[in-house]
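Entry 12.
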Amino acid sequence: MTILVDEAMWPWRGRRWAHLVSDAGYGELHAFAADLGLRRMGFQGDHYDVPAEGRDLALAQGAEAVDGRELLRRLKAAGLRLPPGRRPGSWEEVGRWGSLGEVAGIPDVLLEARGGVSGQVVEVSVWRRGGEAALVVEVSTPIGFDSFPGVEHRLTDGGCLLELLVGLS
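Predicted 3D structure (tokens):
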């Protein structure tokens, strides 16, 4: 298992960003990213973008620092690099609501999974990207969530942001 991170040199929204990848598999990459507190929706198909301070935390937690060429070489060698036509693209917002009861336009499994959410809801949004859909729930105090079969979930922002993701068929 090796998690790799390149230099934070890519400018976006006033910050510098790096790429976080695995040269073994997406499962370990998702687990490492979750430990860093990265949102699951930040996964770009074969990597996560991380800000400079996230890169520092990744290195402190055992990621290997490499230059961009080495990162790409190892990602390709592992068979994990997606060609441009297979990359997922950007998330598009479907809707935004003030409560879970108002949510519409999402796959049934996400509608069912929302029943496992506890906490005072601040805002709910629904997103789509390629073959994925996401329900994002923001609460005012740390949230509780019961796992739901077929739905990937990740809590971030101190337990106040829940992302529920499913693949679309």
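Annotation: The longest helix spans residues 26-36. Residues 3-86 form one domain.
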